[in-house]
Design goal:
It is a single chain. The chain is mostly beta strands. It has one domain: 7 Propeller (Methylamine Dehydrogenase, Chain H). The chain is 12% helix and 37% strand. It has helices at residues 11-16, 25-33, 41-45, 125-136, 143-155, and strands at 49-55, 58-63, 68-71, 79-80, 89-94, 100-104, 108-112, 120-123, 161-166, 172-176, 181-184, 192-193, 206-212, 215-220, 225-228, 236-238, 246-252, 255-260, 265-268, 276-277, 286-291, 297-301, 306-309, 317-318, 327-334, 337-342, 345-350. Strand 21 (286-291) and strand 22 (297-301) form a beta hairpin. The two termini are 33 Å apart.
């Protein structure tokens, strides 16, 4: 696989210093057919994790080499899930306590129906490329879209999905490198490409999907933010004041926050029509964010920093003592308590005094 020289590799690369997977397509196919190795002890505790989510009362995290772990006691004890692939997993989402999805390298999409204890493969990069090619051959598709689809087919299953979102147990979308955007209406049993429905002629990498009521936002490289007012039927580009990569965003009641490289974060109070720079004392890349039940916003960065805003993202202050390893994800486990995940596992943290010592 070619390493992209543009502003955005993947959230994996910035959060953990890991390059996008390289090597022959055959090697990629091998990891799609080989179950994740079951780990224990220090190997499990120190594994690199890229996302953490809540499913009902269960806490789950996913990361390198197909690792998915789950906890029913807010992160004090962990168990490893059975996963059918060995690729790095970049993002998780759950529609309810039982139904969830994970995405990652080699164009993989996984599904679970038992709250994340066991997973099955729904899609891989080879099948995804064929979906894009079929869509690019339909009337109205551009020549560039067709050439991009043909290249994806020729390259084999080596392009990562980087974000996933489901509105309910049936309707979901996944996004990834080179403008990958697919949707399902049956929980992942079948998929369709939305490449012709998004104003993304450069094929910019897409990292995150955020829903605010009936409105969807996509965040990507080169300052890209796309919005859909018709539940994903079409996406149009929004202008933003930053030309670097946005690795994520948050949205609530028309209030937007986009965050990414070199400590850059911007907020909007009018659905992205105008933007303002957040005050945030870091030059580290912001890798993930979460809006807490209190309304506070928490961002984490690739330098181990945790940042908290109590005014909708206008101003952030340090959430506690800075850690020593890169962070890639954050989730709220109880009132005022969060867990952060990254290059050396999961840390339980109180925002008033962030601790980076405990691990799964």
């Amino acid at each position: 696989m070619r390493i992209d020289k543009r502003s955005g590799l993947s959230r994996v690369a910035f959060a953990l210093g890991l390059a996008l997977a390289s090597g022959a397509a055959q090697a990629e196919q091998d990891v799609l057919e080989r179950p994740a190795l079951m780990l224990s002890g220090p190997r499990l505790a120190n594994a690199a994790l890229l996302d953490v989510q809540i499913a009902g009362q269960r806490l789950l995290a996913a990361g390198e080499r197909g690792l998915i772990v789950w906890s029913d006691d807010q992160g004090r004890a962990w168990q490893q899930a059975r996963v059918p692939v060995t690729v790095t997993l970049t993002a998780l989402t759950f529609a309810d306590a039982k139904h969830g999805w994970a995405v990652g390298h080699s164009g993989v999409v996984l599904g679970t129906q038992d709250g994340g204890q066991s997973w099955h493969k729904l899609l891989d990069g080879k099948a995804a490329a064929q979906l894009l090619l079929a869509d690019a051959k339909l009337p109205g598709a551009t020549d560039s879209l067709l050439k991009n689809a043909e290249r994806l087919v020729a390259d084999g299953p080596d392009k990562p999905f980087l974000g996933v979102h489901f509105s309910d147990a049936a309707h979901g979308m996944v996004v990834g490198a080179y403008g990958l955007l697919l949707a399902t209406q049956d929980g992942g049993a079948s998929w369709q490409s939305l490449a012709r429905r998004i104003d993304n002629p450069k094929g910019l990498h897409l990292y995150a999907i955020v829903q605010d009521g009936a409105t969807f936002y996509l965040f990507g490289e080169q300052g890209a933010v796309f919005v859909s007012d018709d539940r994903g039927g079409t996406f149009r580009a929004l202008k933003t004041p930053y030309q670097g990569t946005y690795f994520g965003g948050l949205a609530s009641a028309g209030q937007l926050l986009a965050f990414g490289m070199r400590g850059n974060a911007y907020w909007s109070a009018d659905q992205g029509q105008s933007w303002h720079k957040s005050t945030l004392a870091t030059a580290n890349t912001l890798t993930a964010g979460r809006r807490l039940a209190s309304g506070d916003i928490v961002l984490v960065d690739d330098g181990g920093g945790v940042h908290v805003s109590k005014d909708g993202g206008r101003r952030f202050v340090a959430g506690g003592e800075r850690g020593r390893t890169p962070l890639a994800a954050v989730a709220e486990v109880s009132d005022g308590q969060v867990v952060v995940a990254g290059a050396r596992g999961i840390r339980h943290a109180a925002l008033a005094q962030v601790s980076v010592e405990s691990k799964p």
